[in-house]
Amino acid sequence: METLTIARPDDWHLHLRDGAALADVVHWSAARFGRAIIMPNLTPPLTTTDAVAAYRERILAARPAGSRFEPLMTLYLTDNTPAREIERAAATGFIHAVKLYPAGATTNSDSGVTDLRRCDEALAAIAEHDLTLCLHGEVTHPETDIFDREAVFLDERLAPLLDRHRHLRVVLEHLTTATAVDFVRQGPERLGATITPQHLLMNRNDLLAGGIRPHHYCLPILKREGDRAALLEAATSGHPRFFLGTDSAPHAQSAKEDACGCAGIFTAPLAIELYAEAFEQAGALDRLEGFASHFGADFYGLPRATDTLTLTRQARRLPDTLPYGDARIVPLRAGGTIDWSLASDPQTESA
Ligand SMILES: NC(=O)N[C@@H](CC(=O)O)C(=O)O
Ligand SMILES: [Zn+2]
Ligand SMILES: [Zn+2]
Fold first, then answer.
1. Which residue out of 11, 13, 14, 15 has the highest number of ligand 1 atoms within 8 Å of its CB and is therefore the one to mutate?
2. 185-204 pLDDT, tens digit each
3. 162: nearest Cα among 174, 151, 171
4. pLDDT range class, residue 108, cuts 50, 70, 90
5. Domain locations along the chain
6. Which of 247, 258, 307, 326 is catalytic?
7. Which pLDDT belongs to residue 191?
8. How much is the pLDDT for 349?
9. Does ipTM top 0.95?
10. What average pLDDT does range 284-312 have in this prediction?
11. From ligand 3's centre to the CA of 315, what distance in Å?
């Protein structure tokens, strides 16, 4: 049986949710990743260090017995986040980033930032305390077409932000366009980017052609085939400022399969396997380790993993639904197969 062993990967963009769903979600990531940057877009959003600290305790308690999975926490930035809250967050040692959601851009972003210029003091404090600013990079004005919102954000918001704050380390999350790939390549060393498995493997036909597929709907929305190809090229290029961030974003089946279904794709149960599939398609499996296990840690200034993860080439069938608190959730590829399995995964079931 063919196997692939890499330094244990980390997930630099992950949603774990809270409450009864948390334990149903966290074990999938804990089985695959050593660490993950945990998103703060809960209801209510985690706008204080105390709220983030309490959430971290709930995550640690929800891990499977014996797991050493390490949640790297983030603070939710608002128009009114004081510089001293950033200082307090940095002092914890477990908050590594501050998350900027443009108000109204995505799930639970209503308390996000309405005008970046209101945040200059907080942004200066993020740089001063050596935290990272993570960005959902889309504008939200209703007159901007949903397929253009990322590209417009780069010109109107990100370029000026990088100019105004010359020591700020920024991660542009979940890249979706060739334009964004070029922007990151041409950007400064302090600009990194994450790429999701769905944006490496799918384009907007997978969302809209032959019927509308709510489980392929996420934000930023899937783009054209040329964009997918550019993302795959960037991820497999060995460029150290592109790294893994799944953006696994669980929502109950009923919230997705609705007349107004919400955004987010649940990939945690097959996340590293999907990346292996994408890298293999590009003939670049030998580049997976850099993208998945080295470059993100280097960018965040954290040590690389010392243990490993082994995948085997053994097809596995995904169930139609999985438990999600008192509801059910539909993972990506539900009812379909993935060609890779974890070498030591009790949940592996041959297809
Ligand atoms: N990506 C998504 O479509 N949804 C995310 C939010 C986000 O990362 O934008 C979620 O929290 O559900
Ligand atoms: Zn986002
Ligand atoms: Zn996200």
1. 15
2. 999 999 999 999 999 999 99
3. 171
4. confident
5. 10-306
6. 247
7. 98
8. 44
9. yes
10. 98
11. 28
115 CB neighbour count, 10 Å cutoff: 10
d(CA 89, CA 48): 8
The DSSP secondary structure of 128-140, one letter per residue, reads HTT-EEEE-----
Place of tokens 């963009």: 13
**Of how many residues is the chain composed?**
351
**C-beta separation of 35 from 22 below 8 A:** no
**Which architecture, in CATH terms, is 10-306?**
Alpha-Beta Barrel (3.20)
| 219 marked as binding residue | yes
Radius of gyration of the chain (CA): 19
Cα separation of 264 and 219, whole Å?
7
Residue 238 region by backbone torsions, left for phi larger than 0, else alpha for psi between -120 and 50, else beta = left
Mutating to test ligand 1, I would choose from 106, 173, 213, 265 the residue with most ligand atoms within 8 A of its C-beta, which is 106
CA of residue 81 to ligand 1 center, whole Å: 22
Is residue 179 helix, strand or coil? helix
Consult the annotation and say whether 50 binds a ligand: no
